[in-house]
Structure prediction request, 878 residues.
Amino acid sequence: MTPPDRPPGPPVEPPGDEPGVEPPEVEPPRPAGVEAGGIEADAGRWRKVVFDAVVEGNSVTVTLLAFVAAIVVGGLLIAFTDPVVLPKFGHFFSAPGGALGAAWSSASGAYTAMFRGSIVDIHTVSAAFHGGSITAVFEPLSETLVNATPLILAGLAVMLPFRCGLFNIGGTGQFIGGAVVAGWIGFAVQLPPVIHVVVAIAGGLAGGAVCGWLVGFLRARTGANEVIVTIMFNYVAQFLLLYLLGTHAFRRPKRIDPISRVVHGTARLPHLLGGTLRVNFGFVLAIGAAVAVSWIIKRSTLGFEFRTIGANPDAARAAGMNVERGYIVVMLVAGALAGLAGAAVVLGTDYSLTPGIYGTYGFDAITVALLGRGTALGVVLASLLFGALHAGGVQMQAATQTPIDIVIVIQALIVLFIAAPPLVRTMFRLRGQRSGPERRAALKVVGA
Amino acid sequence: MTTTLAPSLPPTASPVTRRGRRLSKKTVGGGVIGVLGLVDIVGFGLEARSGDARLGLTLAGASVRLSPLKLPPGPTAIVAGMITLVLAGLWLRADLGKAARRAVIVGSGVLFMLSFLCWASAGKSMSLVGLLQSSVDRSIPIVLGALAGCLCERAGVVNIAIEGQLLFGAFAGAMVASASHSLYLGLLAAALAGALLGLILAVFAIRYAVNQIVVGVVLNVLATGLTGYLYDRVLVKYQNTLNAPAVFSRISIPLLSKIPILGPVLFDSSIFLYLTYAILIAVQVGLFRTRWGLRVRAVGEHPVAAETVGIRVLGVRYCNVMLGGLVAGIGGAYLTIGSVGPFGKNVSSGKGFIALAAVIFGRWTPIGAMFGALLFGFADAVQNILSVLGTSIPSDFLLMVPYVATIVVVAGMVGRVRPPKADGQPYVKQ
Prediction:
């Protein structure tokens, strides 16, 4: 994950560095030359770094190119499955321009709609200048943040056990655990305003933590493979949720379909920008959790133990660390994070429990954690990207009838390409790097 | 022959022996069996409704007719529970051999299911043969998925992408069979689609040495997204031409299908069941009785040693991962052209993950994996029949049973199994 062949001399940060891609642990000291007036030499060095980055493809370049490649493949998929475009290819040899033009407009139309739904819609900006609503300008961004919030939290819940050598596929189950407890406190309990939401969030943390702890306990005490156990717990939690939604304590009165009662106003997370924009305090919680996880990994004894166990459990044990306790604690914390994601969705946007409340967060979280390359900042940035893709996908489906599942495809392609830097290099004909460190970098993509 | 490859070193991969309070296999196993016995007596025996349970032993239209088994639910369950408790005591007290332990596990499981079925169908009749037939049918994709898992993992590549391969196979099978009006072409396309996903897994896992679980998970996401997208965009629009395949019809094997009870269960099904027999035997014999199998297992246990004696490690791995994909693709085809016909979004619904559990369940042997898969198929069928019979247990809890059973088995009974030693580790030529 580190560009393995830094140019000799004092290490320099590559330009345009997305900090999430660089592991902060190896952040090099600033070169002394910057303050010492060696600006021209420095500029030369910068040029070399830029040149190397572009030609050889360091991890930032690879990340960007992987994104480009995924977008291109996705675009081809959109264009060549479009019912409007396909008939035109029947006349491809008589009128190639018509077919290609239709393909281009199909793909670009979909992506434009996606951009409008996730970043900014030009029409709302010009409308705002002519006395329209200003909040409408920020609505796409707000949706992006809303979508990113549970992804950040669930992504951290996958990333942290990665560092400890565990693979937590149980995000879905832990998410449900948190959502159920937080939701129940939200609609079944009466408490004063601020206290209610705090208690509900704490309940979400606890609900998820129990689910995570169970996995860690089984792993530590019986050696049960955590991949299998978490997959099975996902199903158990889904059926438990269905059962609960049928019980008297949860079901909304006068409704036949399985949906819970509505969370009281006192337990809802406040909107950050007020009004109709859905972005809420859950996003702040997610960022706070990311900072906390980053601190745990990098600065705390616990995090050092996690990383050591992840790197080599036998060595950790020989050094006197309690590996079993490490497994239990890391899964407890991960469960709490995923549970917080569930709480953020129930208390922040949905306000009630439904059978499908867990969405695809559990599995999206895995892709987020992979893209984030084992750092909290990386997870945040990856979540923002995927949150934008989701928010845009909704708009795209509405505007161009392109099924939103294309977003899942693009997501998977991005991670697939990033996981194999040599593949991206081959595709874009970048100069190959020495295979040794590259291979290791590929192996280290999980940050273990 | 199995033992020829046992490594001389103790397995360092198992993180289970050294420190921390551990529950012994004996305690956990005895405890679980004891609980089963108690549930038999208290749950099913004392709570039984009046009226005999009639368990049908023949299907309608069979030439040899057996009269249905009539059992009083209460006494049956209490007797079954007492026998189970005795078995639990035996497990805890005596040092049982391997065969005896297996007999105890199977026996207590069968007794539990018997008392449960009697309890559920008290005063009603239920076709036992129909139940078994549907269990076998439902376990076909799981068995094939598990065989795919065995093929890959024995060669040292973890295949989490079984779910995606099933889904790809189901999609390709339905689409090609529908477009070409040929079921066999559909089956072929399904197998190739599975193999294609296997090839992608192999390229990333072997050539680029990416973490295998990571690739598997991402491929599952990709398969879900791609089939979901194409379904919404293409199949829904051209429903009649692209997503209306026929279904393979049942083939009764002459003579064998006339055997009472076993005949309709094992020898009266679609081509998929017979294909499954063939592949199961081929993989089991191939892995443990042929030169090819010895090489595969060598690659999965100790690739460096295998390379030293001249086995092409990477070649074997590529070959096996693609073979696995092929087998899983056929399993996927069962989900569409073998049972329901048209493709639906996410039609595999987690069966690939269940197959993964069945592989561990069966300790990485094809036969064992088959038994694990049968268990899941049986649970699936039982839960289906119970929703027809209408019992007082909420159906959501019944749906949970196979998953909880997996956790119990993985954690308790066979928690200390040893995977192939080099499973999941990329091999870089020295």
Notes: The first strand of chain B starts at residue 53 and ends at 56. Residues 1-20 of chain B have pLDDT under 50 and may be disordered. DSSP finds 16 helices and five strands in chain B.
